[in-house]
Amino acid sequence: MEPVSDPIDRTSARGLGGELVLRLTELIQDGTIRKGEKLPTESSLMESYQVSRTVVREAISQLRASGLVETQQGRGSFVLTAPSHGQFALDANEIRTVDDVWDMLDFRLGIESEAAALAAGRRTDQQLAELRRLQQRFEDCESRPSDAVEADFALHLGVANAARNRHYSALLKSVGPMMIVMPKFRLLTGGDANREDNVRLAALEHDAIVSAIARQEPETARAAIRLHLANSRARMMG
User: Fold this and answer.
1) Looking at the domain covering 92-237, what would its CATH class be?
2) H or E segment and range at residue 76
3) Where in the chain is the domain with CATH 1.20.120.530?
4) Where exactly does CATH 1.10.10.10 map onto the chain?
5) Which of 67, 183, 215, 238 has the largest CB neighbor count within 10 A?
């Protein structure tokens, strides 16, 4: 299904990636691209909306993190579900300044610390195994920090899933990987050594979170994720 190629607003505060996410979400929502159908190719989207390949990949990454599409190696991206018109959503594309980042971290402190505490008390063995897998996925990003954004988000979403309360998962999915603000402002800035150090430090903090969940210690898990977010803030301040 080829998209309707209305020009993208290049002056929007959302940015080109955010505008493309909005356009594709609308096509999925109104049934132009239905569940199970393949998204247009990167080249087609680039031509239709006059954007770069980087912008297209950023948009698809956000759709994937929001649970709207899945990408199959060598085949492309396919629609999983249509978003509800009335669903709660936070606009990740409005996280553009340092003040926006501080506000998001404050929000996350309350939400994610409670999710971690619940996960420690409710997680299943299968969910713990998944957290271990996601933890290893992030650690593997030390040598390739550019992959850390999605890996970091996946682990935080895994903790929310282990809380076994769909509202925590829905909140994180509404923002996608841009909720992991450290990569945007610190993880992917500076030299290679600095990026690798940030991944290494975050991996140690992730280990403390997952270990507390494994031991089923809610207060320890809550404290571990609060420390992780506080340290993320410190790293952003340099």
Assistant:
1) mainly alpha
2) strand 76-79
3) 92-237
4) 15-79
5) 183
- Regarding pTM above 0.85, the answer is no
Q: Could you tell me the CA-to-CA distances from 44 to 47, 103, 143, 152, 192 in Å, in that order? A: 5, 37, 32, 30, 33
Distances (CA, A) of 222 to 69, 73, 108, 143: 31, 36, 12, 29
pLDDT band, residue 64 (cuts 50/70/90): confident
Q: Could you read off the pLDDT of 205-216 as tens digits, one per residue?
A: 999 999 999 999
Q: Does domain 15-79 have CATH number 3.40.50.970?
A: no
Beta-sheet pairing, 76-79 with 69-72: antiparallel
Burial of 210 (0-12, 13-18, 19+ CB in 10 A): buried
How far is residue 101 CA from its own chain's centroid? 14
Q: Containing H/E element for 134?
A: helix 125-139
107 vs 121: CA distance, rounded Å: 22
- Residue 20's nearest CA partner among 66, 71, 55, 69 is 55
Residues belonging to the chain: 238
Condensed to tens digits (0 to 9), the pLDDT of residues 88-145 reads 556 555 666 777 778 888 888 889 999 999 999 999 999 999 999 999 999 998 887 7
Q: Using alpha carbons only, what angle is made at residue 135 by residues 132 and 136, rounded to the nearest 5 degrees?
A: 90
For 50: left if phi > 0, alpha if psi spans -120 to 50, otherwise beta; the answer is left
- Could you give the 3-state DSSP secondary structure of residue 35? coil
